[in-house]
Amino acid sequence: MHTSPLTRRTVLAGTAAAAALTAVPAVSGSAHAAEQAEPTAAATYRWRNAVIGGTGFVTGVLFHPSVRGLAYARTDIGGAYRWDDRTSRWTPLTDHLGWDDWNLLGVEAIAVDPAHPNRLYLALGTYAQSWAGNGAILRSEDRGATWTRTDLTVKLGANEDGRGTGERLLVDPRSSDTLWLGTRHDGLLKSTDRGATWAAVSTFPATPSATGQGVTLLVAAGRTVYAGWGDADGTATNLYRTADGTTWEPVPGQPTGTAAKVPVRAAYDKHTRELYVTYANAPGPNGQSDGSVHKLATATGTWTEVTPVKPGGTTSDGSTDSFGYGGVAVDVCRPGTVVVSTNNRWAAVDTVFRSTNGGRTWTSLKDTAVFDVSETPYLKWGEDKPKFGWWIQALALDPYDSGHIVYGTGATLYGTRDLVHWAPQIRGLEETSVRQLISPPAGEAHLISGSGDIGVMYHERLTASPSRGMATNPVFGTATGLAQAAAKPSYVVRTGWGDHGNGACSHDGGQTWAPFEAQPDIAKSAPGPVATNADGSVLLWSFVHWDGTKYPAYRSADNGATWTEVTSFPKGATPVADPADPTLFYAYDTDTGTLYASADSGRTFTARATGLPSGDSQFKLVAAPGRTGDLWLSVKWNGLYRSTDGGASFSKITSCWASYCLGFGKAADGAAYPAIYQVGSTETITAVYRSDDEAKTWVRINDDRHQWGWIGETITGDPRVHGRVYLATNGRGIQYGEPV
Q: What GO molecular function annotation could you give as one example from this UniProt entry (predicted)?
């Protein structure tokens, strides 16, 4: 248990967080910062999202009970947002969190103060694992425009199992100075100074577990606070309450059994004085196969089961209709009106049920739903029409509009104003985890992207979701590779996790696709990065399993009709094509620190430069456009290296000491070399930089308001627009910047 006061400090929403957290080795930060000079002045850039629309798991939505049109949303890896009903748009609130604070982009819980409408609290922390940093509390007096930060001594888990439960953070109904925070492994915490300091609640009777869920929800019912407990076995207590803020007790008569094992969410109808609780046999969002809904008459202590449909039935095709229950919300304007959602219901598809008589009868809103996803076409997932949704644990009902219901899914946030017509209510909220970016030198689109969960997209415009949606034929979940023939930009290839093939090619610049006629057997279980040579006549496909196991690469010279194993290619390496000579390929062996090259169109590879950095968790080998043999090696802990002889030798670039990813764009006026863009460290901080003089000097182009946590996956400039850069984030979509 943690009882000592915790660190406090104030930050603006546009100010870099100062203290580093213990970070996962793959993305930890500034070990050399003390040796560096102060940062140079940043170039003035305007940063915006390349619009896709949502694309990630919205884990919680909270309408403010005292302010019409004000709501907040949380995501598992992409920060928190504020909704403005007047503009129908979400505003990101946590983009100021920088590289060292990458673990705080996951939002575990949100709390508002009904008595003080401008106050907002966030509980941040993406992972509770040993390699992740501790959580933090952000406190705001102006709806998230500025923040005061408290670093916790416990870990939170916004991207772990149970991330759709909650809220786990609550302002006490008896005092605005008192806050409660439910943790996963450290019990219940309490603050009596509005979140500035926290102490463990020794009177909370549940025993924390190192591997369990801990507190799953906190909700006020009048002046009583209820806490859900996720570690019970289905027979023990999983719901507690306090009426005085000091003494906690089990709630008498609470439901037991597998269908009521984990309390997921709760909502209180103040008019009928009934507390509704949704349950499942697992915290979700995955793994739920049973569940129920119960209500407690708080005045009498009577429990009543009001489950709309019990899991376990059989669908028309003979599948078992297994699922749990997730979200719950009550209609403040209409006593006895409540909505609940199913979760993890794959056979019959998830739905939202609505009751107007306290749960005696229910109507499935899915049955009459009319969807309009024209603003975000990818939500059709390559089919004729979208599904109602999945992973529905975030569910909210507007306290000022009984027809306004919103619910989150694994990819978006749907809303209705009349209980029939639904559309994404997602403008401004972008949560994509981006893996690959290409900016073509010609054609309609300036950007093609590859992402986790939503595959590859062709961006005709940066200000609207791609009209074609995600690439089809086949549809991918997560993209693992994306490449364009440098001298033939109409030819693009992609690889990834797909149900009907793991590789595809395009002959019209990425607008339409056809699957490879064949693929190596290993492709289905370990699709990895792909490269195509300068004229598009040869493909090299590398294979890496999700558990890190590396396999030999394969080569095709007939557009994927046949494949041959390349035994001399370093296993698991990322193939890189020379942009000017179609006979040349390169690969960097991170295990040995060796650069390999092929001069016979990828048939064989031989070692060239040796003794380069090895064992580092992140390497990026990039070829400068329009040049033969001009290679740049970006190494996280060891900086930047360059070869101008096709990898025979490398020299270290002295202008930066850490480099995470590197890309190129159109040269500045009068410059002979392309602009270079980098996420790295040239001075005291990790930031986004541009160089117009071959990495002799750099200028920072992002600012303290635009940092986005982990941004080290990929970056590329626009070959047609000097100064424009596209940046991949892990949870805040594609950011693009332009000089102003």
A: hydrolase activity, acting on glycosyl bonds
Task: Give the active site residue among 95, 151, 398, 453.
Answer: 453
Neighbours of 411 (CB within 10 A): 27
For the record, the structure tokens of 667 come out as 């040269």
| Residue 613 DSSP class | -
Amino acid at position 563, single letter: W
Cα separation values, 222 from 138, 217, 329, 700, Å: 26, 16, 16, 51
**Residues 413, 464 within the same domain:** no
Question: Do 221 and 194 share a structural domain?
Answer: yes
Residue 85 is a catalytic residue = no
Preceding omega of 386 cis (within 30 degrees of 0): no
pLDDT lower than 70: segments of the chain: 1-41, 616-617
Last residue of a domain, one of 364, 396, 424: 424
Question: Distances from the Cα of 178 to the Cαs of 189, 194, 204, 681, 703, in angstroms?
Answer: 11, 6, 16, 41, 35
Q: Specify the number of domains making up the chain.
A: 2
Q: Give CA 207 to chain center in angstroms.
A: 31
Sign of the torsion angle spanned by Cα atoms 141, 144, 145, 147: positive
Does 76 participate in catalysis according to the annotation?
yes
Take residue 477 and report the two structure tokens written for it: 């979940």
Asked whether residue 47 is assigned to any structural domain, the reply reads no
Residue reference for tokens 């339409």? 512
Q: How far apart are CA 466 and CA 469, in angstroms?
A: 5
Bridge partners of 120, per DSSP, are 112, 140
Strands (DSSP E) found in 184-290? 188-191, 199-200, 215-221, 224-229, 239-242, 248-250, 262-269, 274-280
704's torsion region: left (phi>0), alpha (psi -120 to 50) or beta? alpha
Q: Yes or no: say if 336 and 387 are a contact pair by the CB < 8 Å rule.
A: no
**Which residue, among 262, 166, 154, has the nearest Cα to 218 in the 3D structure?**
166
The C-alpha atoms of residue 701 and residue 39 are separated, in whole angstroms, by 12
What is the predicted pLDDT for the residue at 678? 97
What is the helix (H) or strand (E) element at residue 738, kind and residue range? strand 734-739
> 222 near 271, Cβ under 8 Å?
no
pLDDT at 499: 83
177 and 97 within one domain: yes
Co-location of 60 and 207 in the same domain: yes
Would residue 292 count as lying in a domain? yes
Domain assignment present for residue 35? The answer is no
Tell me, yes or no, whether 345 and 459 share the same domain: no
- Main-chain dihedrals φ then ψ at residue 366, nearest 5 degrees: -65, -35
Q: Is residue 637 part of a domain?
A: yes
Cα–Cα distances in Å, from 698 out to 73, 96, 693?
37, 22, 8
Its pTM stands at 0.93
Domain match, 457 and 416 both: no
Neighbouring residues of 34: CB distance < 8 A, sequence distance ≥ 6: none
- Same domain flag for 355 and 498: no
Sheet holding 725-728, edge to edge: 45-50, 734-739, 725-728, 715-717
Please choose, from the candidates 236, 233, 219, the residue with its C-alpha nearest in 3D space to the C-alpha of residue 278. Answer: 219
Among 395, 424, 453, where does a domain finish?
Answer: 424
Q: For residue 368, what are its two tokens?
A: 């009459």
The predicted-structure confidence for 197-239, as pLDDT tens digits, reads as follows: 999 999 999 999 888 899 999 999 999 999 999 998 888 899 9
Token pair for 46: 């305007």
- Tokens representing residue 125 in the block: 């922390």
Q: From CA 639, how far away is CA 681, in angstroms rounded?
A: 8
Range of the domain at 603: 434-739
Residue 169, pLDDT score:
98
Instruction: Kindly report the CATH number assigned to the domain that includes residue 334.
Output: 2.130.10.10
Based on the fold, state whether residues 361 and 479 are members of the same structural domain: no
